[in-house]
Amino acid sequence: QVQLVESGGGVVQPGWSPRLSCAASGFIFSSYPMHWVRQAPGKGLEWVAVISYDGSNKYYADSVKGRFTISRDNSKNTLYLHMNSLRPEDTAMYYCARPTQIRKSVAGDGFAIWGQGTMVTVSS
Amino acid sequence: SYELTQPPSVSVSPGQTASVTCSGDKLGDKYASWYQQKPGQSPVLVIYQNSKRPSGIPERFSGSNSGNTATLTISGTQAMDEADYYCQAWDSTTALFGGGTKVTVL
């Protein structure tokens, strides 16, 4: 079945640079743009970043621009989020998400498939 | 910057209709999506492209979008519908979420 499984979270110190992974299965991963969305404890959803189906276009929320990098390996059906210069306010559950439809554009669609999330806690 | 505004909470009696609004400048010119999230679970898409329901979403969930307001309507609300609901839209290449609305079934 269609599935997204995140990994790589944990307790990290400010300034560390962990990498989150999202393993996709059950669909043609290389045909979809892919997203990261986060949720701080007790707070709402915040979109983080998107990467086009072929990795050629990437866009970020202002809150992470210049610190986080989204990437993908279509040969491994895996999405990544490289996190640099972490701050306490980056503490959140990080979800990867897939749009409803195959599309070349990164924007304009809802998020049909979500992973279970991986928790990142930034604390010294 | 573009913002989406939702009421923090909505209460509804079982079997009645719940309406959750999402406001944004000329939101009707964009596609709106809606997500349901229950405690400890990942969000679930319940409406996309303003009014389309994904496979498996009950017919009691419907959506509309016009002017500055998108609305999620839950008809014949059931106890299982108690959850947080988030609207979402795109501003160019940035995805935005509303702050969320807690729907309580009293």
General description of the model:
The complex is a heterodimer of chains A (124) and B (106). Chain A is mainly β and 124 residues long. Helix content of chain A is 0%, strand content 48%. Chain A has strands spanning 3-7, 10-12, 19-25, 34-39, 45-51, 58-60, 68-73, 78-83, 92-99, 111-114, 118-122. Chain A is globular. The mean pLDDT of chain A is 95. In chain B, the strands form 2 sheets. In chain B, strands 1, 3, 4, 7, 8 and 9 form a 6-stranded mixed sheet that branches. Chain B is globular and about 35 Å long. Chain B starts with 8 loop residues before the first strand and ends with a strand. The interface between A and B is medium-sized, with 23 and 26 residues.
Distance between the termini of chain A: 39 Å
Largest sheet of chain B: 6 strands, mixed
Approximate helicity band of chain A: under 10%
Strand segment tally of chain A: 11
Topology of chain A as a string of helices (H) and strands (E): EEEEEEEEEEE
Which class do the helix and strand fractions of chain A yield?
Answer: mainly beta
Number of helices of chain B: 0
List low-pLDDT spans of chain B: none
H/E topology pattern of chain B: EEEEEEEEE
User: The biggest beta sheet of chain A, please?
Assistant: 7 strands, mixed
Question: What percentage of residues of chain B falls in helices of 4 or more residues?
Answer: under 10%
- SSE-based structural type of chain B: mainly beta
What is the rounded Rg of chain A?
A: 14 Å
How much of the sequence lies in strands of chain B comes to over 45%
Multimeric state: heterodimer
Can you count the beta strands of chain B?
A: 9
Number of helices of chain A: 0
